[in-house]
Amino acid sequence: MTNKAAAVLDPAQFDPVQTGFFRFRKLGKRFLVTNDFGRYCFMDDEVFQKFVAGKLDKESDLYGRLARDGFIRDHMDFDAQVAGWRSRHAFLWQGPSLHVVVVTLRCNHRCLYCQTTAESMAGRETDMRQETAKKVVDRIFESTSPAITIEFQGGEPLVNWPVVKFIVEYARKKNRKAKKHLWINLVSNLTLMDDAKFKFLFDNQVNFCTSLDGPADLHDKNRVFAGGSSHAQTVKWFRKIYQKTLRKMFRIEALLTVTRFSLTRHKDIVDEYVKLGCRGVFMRSLSPLGLAREVWDKIGYTADEFLDFYRKAFDYVLEVNKKKPFFEQNARIFLTKIMTDTDPNFLDIRSPCGAGIGQVAYNFDGGVYACDEGRMLSRMGDETFRLGHVAKDGYQATVGHPVIKAISVASCLDNQVSCSRCAYKPYCGVCPVHCYAEQGDIMGRMPSSTLCKIHMGILDHLFEKLDDEKNERVFRKWIKQASDRTSYQRK
Description:
Blueprint: H1 3-8, E1 23-27, E2 30-34, E3 40-43, H2 45-53, H3 61-68, H4 78-88, E4 98-102, E5 109-111, H5 130-140, E6 147-153, H6 161-178, E7 181-187, H7 195-203, E8 207-211, H8 216-222, E9 223-225, H9 230-244, E10 252-257, H10 266-275, E11 280-281, E12 283-284, H11 291-294, H12 296-299, H13 303-320, E13 327-328, H14 329-339, E14 359-362, E15 367-369, H15 372-378, E16 386-389, H16 395-399, H17 402-411, H18 417-421, H19 432-439, H20 450-466, H21 469-483
Parallel strand pairs: 4-6, 4-14, 6-7, 7-8, 8-10, 10-12, 11-13
Antiparallel strand pairs: 1-2, 2-3, 5-9, 14-15, 15-16
């Protein structure tokens, strides 16, 4: 029982023999009770009082369910619960699976919220060289993970097409011997795509990811493109790639970044995604990195403002599901954790986070970072999250770096005072880089953390919706749709 429970209940009424460890949160008129095995149960006040006091009817269905789920101490099936816990934390035994490769910092866009502080198209000083790219791929294949995802980032990766092409070919060649589960992702604004590039990427089964911030007026306001309408170019290639990869295991996805200009446009944004045939939408909040920090007063918002947008958009997504399947990705990540014994391995929302032990980022010059966000911070002159250089530091020195150990400690929720007591601990995670950028400390202070407030608000909304069987059926369809592929790893 948590300290919060002790403030609500008479400690003398608590039965430590029958009642197992739990955390709780009041949602409306009911209590949400969770435990470290990821199980949950809703209880009204009367049932909650009986549960805490160990006075539930042992012949009741509720008692049987609580016993199976690890809430009753003297009826604990440790083997089953441990098996579930190991399944949820399988990522701890894998090694880095996501490898972000920044092939250039040059970009033909000037997005208002650019986290990477991209360079102009002039000059090639920030383009990765082929010899560096070879060392990066060699290092990637030293990972102990049986599954590898190579993700091209920038800048705009297609600016340095020769190196993108080399890495794809070299990685495929190496994997013929390594025999890992190899995925390759391209994160691109698509404005430099052409038929020849697309054919090569398609033939090599590369996944595509692009940004789509909503209808043309909103997208083009956020994502400034000197060549005209960014939206027109993005949608043109999105449609072409979507049709070509419709029944493939590799495909195209789109990401939404929510700015202040998005807050009143939730319906327009969702409609745009539905119109393009997208399977869902990922409503991402702004990150306090790069250009976004400099213009926060113009494009930023509070956690409460974002959550107001999110709740409206999410409820509209549920309306869309009355006609066709369509998910929201934040929700699908959390719901997979809540409703199954599987962690989707989304690296920013797990404990500990994925920095260094789940992902590694490689800068254009061969610099190695614990995560892509840490690499982004280096563009702001802060090398806190640098692990070394691909040509100078070996794999063991990189993955055993003190920075990774510090991040792992900081992002383990058992070490966070507020998180360790929170009912949402089994499903949540913290980002030390975000904490560092916002609060100047990798440990962070969760009561004043914007990201914590957003996660808690989203989880509140999801559990309120989960209390309805119709919504639960929709959510299970979302989870099944996700399980048709390997784990989705990246925002």
